[in-house]
Amino acid sequence: MGKRGSEEQGVLGSVAPMDEINSIRNKSVGLAKGSEKMEKRRLGKSDLWVAPLGFGGIPIQRVSQTDADGLLRLAVEKGINFIDTARGYTDSEEKIGVGLKGIRQEVILATKSMARNGVAMAEDVERSLRNFQTDWIDLYQLHNVRTDEEWAELTSPGGGLEALEKARDAGKIRYIGITGHLPETLSRFIKDYSFVSVQFPYNYIEQENRQELLAEITRQGLGTIIMKPLAGGALRQVGPALRFLLQKSFSVVIPGMDTIEQIEENSAQLSQTFTEQDAKVLELEKGELGQEFCRRCEYCLPCTEGINIPGLFLLEGYYNRYNLKQWSLDRYLGTAIKADACTECGVCETRCPYQLSIREKLKQVHALLS
Ligand code: SF4
Ligand code: SF4
């Protein structure tokens, strides 16, 4: 274990026993400055109590460490106590680890790994612990499980789940969860294994095909972690979109936040109610967007030709929906690898969890912006 991690738990090179961890955690809960400000919801059947607004760790990749420190401390001050990231989000875990120095025990830390076999999963757990500079991670999740093949590898002897169970038995992680973008497959996987929580996209414009998943979650009493509350930035009306989700009984909603203003704006929604006017505003957005829009999850990358696929779709969105026409045209002109570099190899489409016709859409982008 890293030296700085040992400052929190006291024993260099060892893992604190669970009762010691619990005792530290239980003591610290009362110390969290903002903890009285937000109600807490139980994450499934765990003993983790989370504020309904959490901190999504993707955008923190884009800011400096100094800015990340400030954002994390403000979030904790506001009462946000659930921080979620992933091994795959470049330096997000490291930034969070540095930013939470001295206040680690005030938050519930969650991360996830794309590893599917046991060796790679065990390595990822160790790497996450080092990055976070901590001796325990509260929730470790299987990241974006999509196919039956992946599930077979995860659940086989020596697979990823066995490695997570060993890590849990050793006190390195506390609970195991799953994340995914496809409700149909997620509902099947959670029937086969006893997870504590499920993380999936849900927002005003993406509610379809989730009945079975939600029914299974309810049947098992699983925790619910809601990603993409703004549909990957497609929803412009942040207040109504968040109020819509916060009035529901999900455990925690995790918008990504990389500015002080976003933290202020998002946390302000907790004291407001979802109104009929909010519903009207969101219905308008829903009508504008349809279903074929990019959520900027970046799973399609890397493109074999180096095209920044979500970046180009974003420019299209700025042109069509944000009334930034000239700005979008100028940006596209200055883009080194344009949409017409696509050779139509199709690799990106096999990775897109939303089954977007990326090749076709890139042609449209080029016609619009060139
Ligand atoms: S189909 Fe086009 S955009 Fe997709 S990976 Fe291939 S070259 Fe890149
Ligand atoms: S094209 Fe698909 S995979 Fe790529 S960022 Fe958009 S939604 Fe995600």
Give a verbal description of the structure.
This protein is of the alpha/beta class. It has helices at 3-9, 18-29, 65-78, 92-99, 118-132, 148-155, 160-169, 183-192, 211-220, 238-246, 260-268, 276-289, 309-321, 325-333, 347-351, 358-369; strands at 41-42, 49-50, 55-56, 82-84, 108-113, 137-142, 173-179, 197-201, 223-227, 252-253. It starts with a helix and ends with a helix. Mean pLDDT is 88; it is low at 1-35. The protein binds iron/sulfur cluster (SF4) (2 copies). Residues 294-300, 309-310, 351-352, 354, 356, 358 line the site of one iron/sulfur cluster. The site of one iron/sulfur cluster (SF4) has 14 residues, from helix 13.
Compose a concise summary of this entry.
The protein is of the alpha/beta class and 370 residues long. The chain contains 16 helices and 10 strands. The protein folds into 2 domains: 3-275, TIM Barrel; 309-369, no CATH class.
The arrangement of helices and strands along the chain is: HHEEEHEHEHEHHEHEHEHEHHHHHH
Which homologous superfamily in CATH is the superfamily of the largest domain?
NADP-dependent oxidoreductase domain
The CATH topology of the largest domain is given as TIM Barrel
Report the bound ligands by name, code or SMILES.
iron/sulfur cluster
The low-confidence parts are 1-35
Order of neighbouring strands in the sheet with most strands:
3-4-5-6-7-8-9-10
The DSSP helix count reads 16
Strand content: 5-15%
Q: Percent helix among the residues?
A: 40-55%
Distance between the termini: 52 Å
Rg, nearest Å:
21 Å
Based on the coordinates given, report the CATH architecture of the largest domain: Alpha-Beta Barrel
Please provide the count of β strands. Answer: 10
Helix/strand class: alpha/beta
Query: Which sheet architecture does the biggest sheet show?
Result: 8 strands, parallel
- Oligomerization state: single chain
Categorize the overall geometry: globular
